[in-house]
Amino acid sequence: MALVIYRESGAAADQKLPTRSFHLPQGVSVVLRQDKQDEGGKGSNLENVGLVVWQGAFVLIEYLLRTFPPEHWKDKRIIELGAGTGLAGIALAKLGAQVALTDMEHVLPILRENVATNLDVKEHRFSVSALLWGDTTAMQALGECEVVLGAELVYQEEHFAALLATLRALLASPAAVAYFSFCLRGRGEARFEAMLHEEGFAVERVPCEQLHHEYQGGNYVVLHIRRGF
Question: Does 215 fall in a domain?
Fold first, then answer.
């Protein structure tokens, strides 16, 4: 089992490890299996993404656990979009949140495996289900939430409209908030932020100096997002 290295450089090597162990703030530990071989199989399509831990997921959960006390998450109703291997959602479920981890169908087997490794059905509250962005029926089945999580979802512009529609539906309460993280790869990230503003969302960028010290160079972004009412 490999201990995670909190580094921006070397991410590709970390993704080739079959298993990674994360020791996070608040004493939270998460062990995740990865499948880099499958993820590398199909170019720019979505059929095989989500099977390794992308650095943006670490950046997001490390920031959240360091910023808010453990009791902040207790009983919070959380939906994670594009949960992938499950790092963020699993960590918050360990702190008492009620977490719905969602992704595409092909990701669910590894996501369920990682959930089973880290969470106890008698102790933690969680669900794992498929969700295609914009699927109104599936979103209604998830119920109301207070927090939406999204790590490394912003890299294909053709899916931005569906992602925004999903955010609009899930942030149904004025008190609800989304936390998104992504790497600036030149794949439409600025356009996504512009679309958020155009759609009336209130958006706040977390200052780089508030992120983990290895990720303060400006390549990674964490957003607070609320729906405008």
Answer: yes
